């Protein structure tokens, strides 16, 4: 059996990247009927019908239409499970701290998107700890698959000649027509909390700790006061974690406790906590906590605005490039390493169709000239921190048919993806007999061959 990702149309090799990486709920996905039975077995891994249907509903919700879409998704899921199975054999692992960091960001984004932790629980009909556990498992699989793909094809590059040859192979009547696209950068500064705000947060937690030690229920106080959207509604309970899966300060304090004992106030990157150890089970431990985040005062926002104004002035005077300023000063880890440039999830380029631009950004850049930078604007990070940012309109491309002059970056990305996909297909061909693959009769019509 030959497993490959060979797509004939321009960019179809990238079709499912964003779809299969999406974990946030979508209204359209609620309409899917999720029936749990196995549709495929790949080594020791299974693919459930509910998993396939959920991904299909997400894809349809994002505008993908194809008579073979369900089969395309099944093919991608099988390929991912094959990579996962081989990763276990080859001892390819991802760092747990990376999983935890991405998990926290994704969960906070999902909560913000749906409008609260309680709504997220109602959507999935699960507790927050169960949702967190499910997402962790799925996310770890995704990151492991990505690591395997890097092991196989990560070092592959394309030359300008190969990019031109790839473009020349596309039939002229199949060249895509691109709508207006923009390149937008940002520099984000999180408002620094003053000492008065820190002391107020600590004092509030000290008071809560005294009430707990005097006999009040920790869980009830967590539900009332904790500012952790993921665990507050659950009485502060996080569920079981292994070592190095939580931020170091939290883990260190938790592991010093005996079951039922409450920690002193501790500080982490998220704010201030008091922690109660619920249970220790081998290498795993279950805790609950109350999180209080220091309030951001207006004076701090003013100081942050002054910082951004100074950075903006340096860039506008050509004393500093925007990319260098983003790398040196931005607090947004997702964009600072990319010269501050914003990209769409799963996209290999910095070009964003205007109809995909976040409205809060669109209405700002719509008033900017190419090369100009906005004044500092209010911004809230994915984890709920008050911040300001400046936006930079690097380029604006009018609607046009794909060509090498205007779209080299996108064409090069597609050529590279195609070359890497072919390398992965060759790897599957050489390793296909090392992993057992079985598809249920309902999906036998979904060919996994090229």
From TrEMBL:
Known EC number: 5.2.1.8
Domain of life: Bacteria
Membrane-crossing residue ranges in chain numbering: none
InterPro entries: OMP_Chaperone_SurA, PPIase_dom_sf, PPIase_PpiC, PPIase_PpiC_CS, Trigger_fact/SurA_dom_sf
Record-level Gene Ontology MF annotations: peptidyl-prolyl cis-trans isomerase activity
Alphabetical keyword list: Isomerase, Rotamase, Signal
PROSITE patterns per UniProt: PPIC_PPIASE_1, PPIC_PPIASE_2
UniProt enzyme class: isomerase
Leader sequence segment: 1-29
Domain PpiC, first and last residues per copy: 179-279, 282-392
Protein name per Swiss-Prot or TrEMBL: Peptidylprolyl isomerase
């Amino acid at each position: 059996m030959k497993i490959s990702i060979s797509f004939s149309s321009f960019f179809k090799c990238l079709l499912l990247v964003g779809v299969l990486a999406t974990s946030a709920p979508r209204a359209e996905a609620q309409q899917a009927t999720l029936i749990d039975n196995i549709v495929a077995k790949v080594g020791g891994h299974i693919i459930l019908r509910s998993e396939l249907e959920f991904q299909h509903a997400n894809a349809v919700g994002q505008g993908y239409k194809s008579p073979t879409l369900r089969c395309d998704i099944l093919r991608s899921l099988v390929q991912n499970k094959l990579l996962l199975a081989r990763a276990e054999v080859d001892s390819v692992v991802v760092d747990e701290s990376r999983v935890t960091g991405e998990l926290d960001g994704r969960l906070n984004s999902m909560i913000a998107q749906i409008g609260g932790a309680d709504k997220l629980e109602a959507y999935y009909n699960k507790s927050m700890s169960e949702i967190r556990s499910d997402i962790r498992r799925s996310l770890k699989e995704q990151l492991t698959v990505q690591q395997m793909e890097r092991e196989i094809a990560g070092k592959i590059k394309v030359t300008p000649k190969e990019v031109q040859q790839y473009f020349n192979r596309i039939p002229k009547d199949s060249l895509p027509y691109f709508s207006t696209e923009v390149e937008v950068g940002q520099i984000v500064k999180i408002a620094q909390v003053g000492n008065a705000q820190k002391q107020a947060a600590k004092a509030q937690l000290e008071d809560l700790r005294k009430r707990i030690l005097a006999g009040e229920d920790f869980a009830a106080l967590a539900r009332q006061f904790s500012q952790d959207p993921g665990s507050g509604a659950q009485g502060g309970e996080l569920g079981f974690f292994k070592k190095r899966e939580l931020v170091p300060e939290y883990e260190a304090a938790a592991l010093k406790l005996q079951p039922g004992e409450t920690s002193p106030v501790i500080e982490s990157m998220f704010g201030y906590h008091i922690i109660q150890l619920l249970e220790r089970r081998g290498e795993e431990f279950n805790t609950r906590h109350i999180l209080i985040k220091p309030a951001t005062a207006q004076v701090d926002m003013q100081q942050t605005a002054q910082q951004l104004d100074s950075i903006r002035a340096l860039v506008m005077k050509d004393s500093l490039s925007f990319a260098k300023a983003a790398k040196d000063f931005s607090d947004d880890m997702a964009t600072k390493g990319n010269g501050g440039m914003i990209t769409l999830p799963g996209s290999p380029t910095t070009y964003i169709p205007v109809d995909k631009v976040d409205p809060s950004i669109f209405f700002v850049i719509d008033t900017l000239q190419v090369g100009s930078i906005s004044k500092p604007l209010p911004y809230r990070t994915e984890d709920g921190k008050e911040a300001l940012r400046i936006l930079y309109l690097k380029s604006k491309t009018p609607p046009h048919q794909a060509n090498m002059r205007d779209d080299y970056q996108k064409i090069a990305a597609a050529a590279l993806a195609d070359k890497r996909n072919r390398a992965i297909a060759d790897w599957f061909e050489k390793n296909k007999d090392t992993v057992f693959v079985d598809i249920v009769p309902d999906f036998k019509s979904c060919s996994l061959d090229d």
